[in-house]
Amino acid sequence: MTNPIITIDGPTASGKGTVAQRVAHALQFHYLDSGALYRLTALSALREKLALEDEQAIACIASHLPCHFKGEQIWLDKEEVSDVIRAEEVGNAASKIAVFPGIRKALYSLQRSFSKPPGLVADGRDMGTVVFPLADLKIYLTASVDARAERRFKQLISKGFTANIDDLVKDLAERDARDKNRSIAPLKPAQDAYILDTSHLTVEQTVMEVLQQYSAISVKK
Ligand code: C5P
Asked: Does the beta carbon of 94 sit less than 6 angstroms from any atom of ligand 1?
């Protein structure tokens, strides 16, 4: 029997990270934050002063990424970078390197290695479409750009970063366009995904909805 997998995809700041973590916690499943892997790769590339178009060199970094996850902490080699990778500069660099097929492929096996008993909740852009196409439940979370900018604003301020709402709206729209229009693994719902607009939902309501969808499919099996 294979391990159950729930994928939660969606655009930047749609709330998928928080929702995925809470769903994983409720079910006692493992959690994969695939965006963090792109951010870690981007951070390493920035630190090594590589051009963000240098697909080969960055794919090489991605295939040997010395990362580990301890609870909510994210480590790159011997450094805890949980907050550093959340900076907008790193997020933007992550979205730029994520357009390259070689870099995406270099991260596939690392992402798939997170699937272990008793199950996995994976969040990202292509979890249901590419990385785990046979997932048991696929969720696609969306929310308006304004709702997402406001969430991202609060998140950045709470982490001690400065932020400006207008810049965030512009950044999110640009990042959405890049994620949706790239030729490999573009951001889009899987054909069999359950689409959930969270613009007017709380995190708790969204988590409940995902858990209900999961118990509905578990009952059918
Ligand atoms: O989700 P997060 O904002 O942390 O992801 C950072 C960037 O990494 C995204 O803007 C996206 O371009 C890229 N990404 C991706 N595929 C994933 C996860 C993230 O292309 N599965």
From this structure: yes
Q: Is 9 in the pocket of ligand 1 (CB under 6 A)?
A: no
Where are the chain's structural domains?
A: 5-220
CA of 201 to the centre of ligand 1 (A): 23
Q: Which of 31-35, 128-132, 154-158 has the lowest mean pLDDT?
A: 154-158
* SS3 letters across the chain: CCCCEEEEECCCCCCHHHHHHHHHHHHCCEEEEHHHHHHHHHHHHHHCCCCCCCHHHHHHHHHCCCEEEECCEEEECCEECCCHHHCHHHHHHHHHHCCCHHHHHHHHHHHHCCCCCCCEEEEECCHHHHHCCCCCEEEEEECCHHHHHHHHHHHHHHCCCCCCHHHHHHHHHHHHHHHHHCCCCCCCCCCCCEEEECCCCCHHHHHHHHHHHHHHHHHHC
pTM over the 0.85 mark:
yes
Question: Could you report the per-residue pLDDT of 59-101, keeping only the tens digit for each?
Answer: 999 999 999 999 889 999 999 999 999 988 999 899 999 999 9
CATH superfamily of 5-220: P-loop containing nucleotide triphosphate hydrolases (3.40.50.300)
